[in-house]
Amino acid sequence: MTSEETLRAARRCHNVLNPFHSTHYFSPDLAEELAAVGVTDRGATYFAARSAAMGAVGPGAVTAAFYNFNHELVARHLPAVWSVASPETVLAARERAVDSTLRRLLGADVLASPEMAEAAELALRATEACTRHARPLYAAHADLPVPDAPHLAYWHATTLLREHRGDGHLAALLGAGLDPLEALVSHVATGRGMAPKWLLVTRGWSRDDFDAAAGRLRARGLLTDDPELTLTEAGTALRADLEARTDQLDRAPYEHLGAEGVARLTELASGFTGTALGNGAFPADLIGKAA
Questions:
Q1: pLDDT, tens only, 56-104
Q2: 196 preceded by cis ω (within 30°)?
Q3: Which InterPro entries does the entry link to (predicted)?
Q4: pLDDT in tens, 31-51
């Protein structure tokens, strides 16, 4: 394949791996497992679960690594959550939640299938080419042991690949001069981002913050005056350049896996993720421009 074809194939693969990792964030099992170890504030659940791999970190490190969350929201929950449950306790609770979530969404037969074991092997092989430098969330998760069960090993590998690409994407956002909320608003404007109603709740921003960021993007000529959030040609080009730069920064694991491996992993991952989506893994109104 040409270099451009390789990057397109890598992005297609990522696009079906990433949702598989993210299923547990929207699962009631995660809140239940963390509540069982003392983390009863649902607002702390996401921050604890995703940052636990970095240890008992404070809000500054998490705001930096997560990029698009309001620091005041992060500081409301960290480091206080670590006085309730240690990072090790949270990681164990997260793994239990992932296990029960996948059993519900996919079924025991799929989890025990040869295809799941094959997907785990392929995804883990891809992670062999991931790099730690300037990738804090990937590096922290890469230090965790690989679970024994194939479906958990596959989920672990999707986590590594997701955070590896995500860390690179943040570098691209910085290079493009987009602040955290401008990044979110411009992504909403593509029609593929999280809907504003979800962003405002989960990321801790107000509607005034959101509208101010949209105003800054309009001043840069990246959004039209359309209140529905429409990218200009310059805005469309910027978002395309962001994804292309992210593809370049994330090419190593997929080149390492090779064209046949990427194609097979994409095929397997599409089936698993499609089943999870069909079984209600995410809210129906999660993606879109609706306020």
A1: 999 999 999 999 999 999 999 999 999 999 999 999 999 999 999 999 9
A2: no
A3: HTH_67 (IPR054058)
A4: 999 999 999 999 999 999 999
Residue with tokens 């992005």: 11
- The structure tokens listed for 192 are 């593929």
- Name the β-bridge partners of 223: 231
